[in-house]
Every structure is written in structure tokens, then in C-alpha cells.
Amino acid sequence: MKGILLRALETGARLEMIYVSNKNEITQRKIKVLSVEIDSFRAFCYLRKEQRTFMLKNVLSIAPERVKYKKEIS
Description:
Layout: H1 2-11, E1 14-20, E2 26-36, E3 40-45, E4 50-55, E5 59-64
Antiparallel strand pairs: 1-2, 1-5, 2-3, 3-4
């Protein structure tokens, strides 16, 4: 998981993440990684529209953002 975070930090790529909060709330978020620590990372969260600190142990899934393409009809 840290590999994906570090790669996104280097390239500036956005990620999609499923995260469990300390209150056991599950959310799907789009983020841009700002820094990576030993057991947490800082990212801009597009859901909350602010910088947040996320605990690695609370990340259920993380992957590059899926790009939606418009299908052209001819």
C-alpha cells in the first residue's frame, strides 16, 4: 500500500480509497497524497474538500482513480 501512496506522491496522481473512520463509518474518497509517514499519510480529500490525515490501518482499499470515458455514438 505504501508503494501506491509514494508513487502517487511522486506523480501527483489522484487515488480512490475506501476508508473506515475511528467512528466505524465507511466512506469512499478521492484523494491527492501530500505526505507519507510510518503509520499515516496526509492527503487532500475531495469529499471533505480539505487536507486530512489518514491512518494506514483504516484503509480498506486504495487504487489509482478510475477514469470515465464518454462513449461516442456515430
